[in-house]
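pasting for ref
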Amino acid sequence: MNNDKEMRPVNTHKAKKQILLIDDDEHIYMSIKTIFKEQYQLYYAEDGRQGCEKAKMLKPDLIILDSRMAGLSGEETLSILRKQDDKVPIVFLTAYPEDVISQIGNTGNISCFVTKPFDVDKLRKLVDNLTKDTKC
């Protein structure tokens, strides 16, 4: 007896979750890409405006956003991103944590913030947790 279902390979490969990095420093992009390239599909935007456009198009599972950029600031970008999607986890990447805490840290608009330079293992755990719908 020939059963086609038995002959077909089973596709157990899951699609990679998507991360959108919005940062004007290409070195940060290269670092983040190296850390997450095996586990996640990484997209990059070099400024806030481009990041908002890509986020709207891609609907990523997580956004990593630089707090200080030329053009739209991190705070302005965050405001636009939240109008587009109020549920996507957003991690602020900053060398100025006091700015994040004083300006937007208590608004609930970000999931967490990570200071530069960042600890690779901590960032990896944070991203893994946030893409699994858990709190940081």
